[in-house]
Amino acid sequence: MLLVYRFLWLASSLGTAAVLIMLSSSRQAPPVITGQWTNVQQGRFTLQIPQEFRAHRDALTQMGMNKPNSPIQLQDAVRIERGVRIGIQLALVTRRTDLQTSGDEPSTASPQEPNPIQLLRQVHAAQLENLRNAYADFKANQNTRVQIQGVMGWRTDFEYTLPHWIPFFNMPVRGYLITLPVSQSEALHAIAYSPPHQLTEYQKVFERLLNTVRLNAGATNSGGW
Amino acid sequence: MYPNPLHEAVEEAKKVKVLYEVNTGYTLTAKLERFFGVAMTIAVLNLVFLAWRPEWGLWSSTVALFLIGAWLPVSYLGERLEDLGAYRDLLILGLLQAGLGNPIAAFVLYGIFFVLAWLITRGELSSAAMPFAVAYVGFRSLFDLALLFTGTLDLADWLRFQMDPMRALPLLAMAVGWFVGSLLRND
User: Fold this and answer.
1) Which of A17, A42, B1, B77 supports an S-S bond with A78, CB 3.0-4.6 Å?
2) A116: CB partners within 8 A, 6+ apart
3) Quick check: is A181 in a domain?
4) Taking a contact as any Cβ pair under 8 Å apart, which residues of chain B between 64 and 103 contact chain A?
5) What is the number of domains present in chain A?
6) What region, left, alpha or beta, does residue B41 occupy, with left being phi > 0 and alpha being psi -120 to 50 degrees?
7) Cα(B141)–Cα(A148) distance, rounded to whole angstroms?
8) Which chain B residues are within 8 Å of A30, Cβ to Cβ?
């Protein structure tokens, strides 16, 4: 009987090595998602997400993104994540019109209202600044125009480092921020991120996901772009 | 011809050794071969399943570790789960796994606690859970490595130290397997 056990562990060890070598081969890498998508409704967002991802809409996210004196106010946000560095965050923002300007002297001339494109770029830049403050080694690479569901928006690619308790295990992350105008007063941020070597594959997933996003009706501010 | 007393003594000793091995199970090598003969077969079957359906990785690894846990006492490599100290060590290991989320980090901390407790008690400490912990960390790491290769598990998630009770599910299954295997072992 011992010979049988000996044969089993020897054969299984060889089999284990063979399976691991096969799996580590990049040619055998399976697609990042299985292809099954489910409908999700979270707050003002209705969208389709792959089965492997989970949607969260927690207060912490919303509180963390709203600063007291920011001219941009967060309306709603949802995180669709597969892991700590694979996911996409959607944030619906509006421009605040109720801010009191500080200063002793009243302004004599009203500043010229920027046009919608300039406003959109400001909102985009403000969100990039938020990301820069939030992550270590944040680097914005290139800025391009994109079209999602027929709407033109801004896209900025970025890289940052995901910190770990043990600095040796800090992980690089690559992603992009897309800002789209969705109404006269609202804009949508999409912050997508993944490991650098998988961004090409996940980008297709994120693009399909963004094309399924629908915004439910909600209260909007009176301000405009 | 007179019988050689030395030869007889050696023969008697051999009988005693055989009787001892029958009583306790097997020699350490035989125990290791018995354990890994079945455990590695279960592991390779799970690896093949992981390559086929990586999205079911958590559940298939849980089942595989349950079976390996059940085989641990039956193969005589591990003791039966009947010692209070073993239950205590299982609880510590489970809490560390759920609290840290990483099997190797949990094992390292458990090892440090164990060594400290061993030094404090001057060696009077139950080590029944140590073969279980070593087997768990080894096979769990093997299965996680396969999931990393398939892209189902990201390295950053595996390295993350964060409370995640779901990641302790395979450990719980293996502990239940150890309990079931202890009931099945016929001493």
Assistant:
1) A42
2) A181, A224, A225
3) yes
4) none
5) 1
6) alpha
7) 41
8) 54, 150-151
Question: Quick check: is A160 in a domain?
Answer: yes
Helix (H, G, I), strand (E, B) or coil at A103: coil
Q: How far is residue B157's CA from residue B111's CA, in Å, rounded to a whole number?
A: 23
Interface probe with B: pick from A4, A10, A19, most Cβ of B within 10 Å: A19
CATH classification at residue A79: 3.40.1000.10
Contacts of A83 in chain B (CB under 8 A): 153-154, 156-157
In-domain check, residue A142: yes
Contact A40/A46 with Cβ under 8 angstroms? yes
Helix (H, G, I), strand (E, B) or coil at A28: helix
Alpha-carbon gap, residue A218 to A225, rounded angstroms: 18
Rounded percentage of chain B residues whose pLDDT exceeds 70: 91
* B67-120: pLDDT as tens digits: 999 999 999 888 888 888 899 999 999 999 999 989 999 999 999 999 998 888
Helix, strand or coil for residue A29?
A: coil
Average pLDDT score over residue span B4-23: 66
Pick from A5, A19, A164: which is nearest to B48 by CB? A19
Is B173 in contact with B63 (CB distance < 8 Å)? Answer: yes
Domain of A91, in residue numbers? 70-95+115-196
Option in A8, A15, A171 nearest B37 (CB): A8
Q: How is residue A184 written in tokens?
A: 């006269």
Looking from the CA of B86 toward its CB, the CA atoms found within 13 Å total 18
Q: Is A157 part of any domain?
A: yes
CB contact under 8 A, B51 and A52: no
The DSSP string of chain B is: ----HHHHHHHHHHHHHHHHHHHH---HHHHHHHHHHHHHHHHHHHHHHHHH-GGGHHHHHHHHHHHHHHHHHHTTSS--S--HHHHHHHHHHHHHHHHH--HHHHHHHHHHHHHHHHHHTTT----THHHHHHHHHHHHHHHHHHHHHHTSS-HHHHH-----GGGGHHHHHHHHHHHHHHHH---
Q: ipTM, 2 decimals?
A: 0.81
Which backbone phi and psi does A120 adopt, to 5 degrees?
-65, -40
The answer to whether B142 faces chain A, any CB pair under 8 Å, is yes
